[in-house]
Amino acid sequence: MSKVQSSTLGYPRIGEKREWKKALEAYWGDKVSQEELEVELKQIRLTNLKKQQEAGLSLIPVGDFSLYDHVLDTAVSFGLVPERFAYDGGPVPLDTYFAIARGTNEAVASEMTKWYNTNYHYIVPELDSRKPELVENRVLALYKEAREELGIEAKPVLLGPVSFVKLSKNYGNKTLAEHVQQLLPLYAQVLKELEEAGASWVQIDEPFLNGDVAKSDIELLQEAYAFLGQEAPVLNILLQTYFEAVDHYEQVVDLPVQGIGLDFVHGGEATLRQLQEKGFPDGKVLAAGIIDGRNIWRADLKGVQALTSAIGKIVPNDRLILQPSCSLLHVPVTVKTEQKLPDVLAAGVAFADEKLAEIVTLTKVLNRDADERTLEESRRAVEALNASESRNNPTVQRELAETEGENTSRTVAAKERYRRQQEALGLPLLPTTTIGSFPQTKEVRKQRLDWRRGNLSNENYDAFIRKEIDKWIDIQEDIGLDVLVHGEFERTDMVEFFGEKLDGFQFTTFGWVQSYGSRCVKPPIIFGDVSFAETMTVKETHYAQSKTKKPVKGMLTGPVTIYNWSFPRVDISESNVVNQIALALRKEVQALEEAGISVIQVDEPALREGLPLKREKWEQYLEQSVTGFKLSVNKVHTETQIHTHMCYSDFEDIIAAIDALDADVISIEMSRSHGELISSFEDFTYNKGIGLGVYDIHSPRVPAKEEISRNIDRALSVLDKELFWINPDCGLKTRQEPETVAALKVMVDAAEDARKRQLSEVK
What are the tens digits of pLDDT across the range 146-163? Predict the structure, then answer.
């Protein structure tokens, strides 16, 4: 009998205990040499490959490992380095590579944005920088390394030419098609060299196919792969899609390639229906994504077996590869390091290593190399979790049912609310504030860790936090900020902090995933019904307010962001989970208000990034998101000012939804996009308070006053000065104290100048 093969699209880069992150940051901190860094990263890379080899995968990817970001890797392979980084050609030096991502004192970092609707960020290539050329065949070196070091005949992975250009910016005077055509000979050279080296399969990712795809893009894709197939005729190309069902199914599966990868998890019934109704080309391989690569729940393998049986009726075993739905970059490495999860939950989750085991087990069963009874354990684990007390809280379910039909709007219109709030707060024109967090020094992290480990008493830890709050209240007042924050020194991650204090959440010990660069986060697991247990932010916020006459913002993370930045349960609807979180947060908002806090920020940085990839699903998602946000804040008094914050995204298509949130003040990132965001407001009259971030906090450089002034003036060219706020792009937790203070001083100075200009114009 012909055998089904097994594979994966990519594996986490970071190591079981973030060894990758530690190595990078040691290099950036001048603690190790480049040679030492490369030795350490090679060891991590080979360990990752060996684990996949030992798992029993048929096809193991290479090229998925990165020193920062795989999109940036593609750009520098083709010498696409922005001119401001003084690159002279040839292989891109390591420090130039990092400078593009992180910026320098002399050059602004390239823009960073979200990878489709995931929580991963990529560095946006700039195509107008120079003519592309193949300066380094990076994936060839990695293919040879896997073979020479471990005897693995690997599957090289490339980001496809059409997706790469679509993910880029600054097209200059060239069209999308012209940029793709310029890159094709370079891709062909990469493939030829892989073919000559003995590679059999190459995975080329074209994730742009997960969205709404124009006919012209399909035609361009057809031309591109016809060209690449001619240039490397012996090589087998697997064109990989993920995150959704594809549009233009028939044209995609008929592309001149040897294999097609489809997502049967997030594409769901739509992908299976396409396969059943329209068939699959004879002679082609189907790489079927059947295990969820983006969430951590253990699969019911009996249920997945039914899916593979349906697929098998159309595609024979010798043309079938089983794999996760997408790269495992989006999940933690392994459950085996988790010792503190409740038994019922530990049995019900699967991280990257466990997902590989699920794929291999299903493959063995399909190949009759294992008994079907091996699948029963997974079904029992899933059923036990769904039946647990945590997922069946009658109080939460009753409160949720009571919100059906509730009017979630505040009782006074936004314009009148804002007038009364500004009067009560006594704020000047163009008020200044920050987004929430201040630098978390080694001492802050050490004290928090000692407290968590029980080596520091609650009293001593509280005293330390109060000392930090005192210090930064004084700093903010000295700088001249108008609305202050307490600094969030007691918090780790902005979602983890709240998840730890709400019932229905669980946390891992080593469940890290990469967010951007070396920044790793530990997403909470929403495993049960969510409910309010006790106040979460009142103590620190109330203390900070007692130290100043200026308003101090209460700082919360919103329900949509908590959902999107967690691993949410999937046994109930997304809207039900979001609304459960919203109702719990509502109680915290009311507690802050009762404690005398008159400005409360409920951050929703992830609202835009959670937008479905297909427009037909947008309306439902946005309505659900708006409802969740409003549920969390709609019980406050008219004079209580509600702020929210969003970042990193194109907002043109969701301006109406942002308006519908009915927040009194919204702050949005704009500096890395160099003011492009402002165009969103040129055709939409936004009549609520708004702050467009005037400098980039992801770079250590202190912005020049002229730079901030330009950003302020550009914003005021389209926004009402009576409604405009001045603030940084995002929280300042990852920055150092000297640069933070210096940057904020520049920002306040620029704000004072702008205020004077505006007032003089009125006179």
Answer: 999 999 999 999 999 999
